[in-house]
Structures are given as C-alpha cells and as structure tokens.
Amino acid sequence: MGDQNKKYYFADLEKMSSDEHMNEDVQDIACPRLVLEYNKHMGYVDKLDMLKSIYELDRKSKKWWLRIFWYLLDISLVNAYIIFKNRNTTTKSGKCMTLKDFKLAVCLGLIGADENIPKKGRISSVQQNTFKANVPQEIRYDSCAHMPIHGSSRRCAYCSSTSSPHRTKWICSR
User: What's phi and psi for 5, nearest 5 deg?
Assistant: First the structure.
C-alpha cells in the first residue's frame, strides 16, 4: 500500500529493508531519512483528517478566505484536543473528554458562559445607584457648612445616572 509514484529528495540515506513477495527475501536498501520519517508518521495525518471531519466547522461562504479560516480553526482545535488528551488522560469521572465536549468547552470559554449573564426581561424596580461623587475628598469632608444655593439650570449629578435624568437649579455653595 502507499504511494507508488517516483519521488525525488535531497537527503541523507539510511538503511531500510525491502520485502520481496515472490522470493520472500529481505534486502537492505538505501533510503532517505525523510522517507523513513514520513512512513513512520503518515498515520497521524489520516487520524487528524478523521478527527477534523467528525465535527467539522466548514461553512459555505462567498469569501474564499473564510473557508481557509474555518479550516485552520478546525485543525487548531483538533491539535489542541490531541495535546489536551495527551496531558490529561482522565477526567473526574475517569473517562477521557471527547472531542465534542472539548470543542464545547472551548466555545463556552471564549464567549464567557461561566460568567454571570444578565437575564432578559423587565428590569427590576430596585436599581442600585451608580452615582459616584466627583467632589474631591478634602472639600467633601471639610466640616464647613455646605449650603444649597440657587444657580443656573444643570443636570442633577445624582439623577443623571438613572434611567430618567432630571435638571435642577440647586447647587452646592462650595
């Protein structure tokens, strides 16, 4: 089995045994190291293609670069899964995480699903005030009489952070 076409390489030669099926003789022949390494690891390419095809991310697109992006994302997720599987052989239940669970965990991690997401619907009637005083602490707590005085119409510093801002003519004397 394998590729029967001629290949040309510039590489160091190593010894490799050849099988003669007719005479059942085994002879040592010179073979490039590159070919030996390829034959040794060529099954990993098939396994990568198989794992990639299980839950493929390929989407139809009119833009050619999106197809390349989906392909590269798919390959990188499968490679990350293989590395994860080699480093973490078992989970708490004693079983290894599947590729589907791994991709789901990556997606949930990227969108931040473990964080508190605000619920949809009506806003609660009790809202926390997000007003922050922008008056320096020295003036705010200086024990002088801060009296309200009548001034020009301005936005209220307290109410402007709520959903219904108001305007006021009263300001602090300091």
Answer: -75, 155
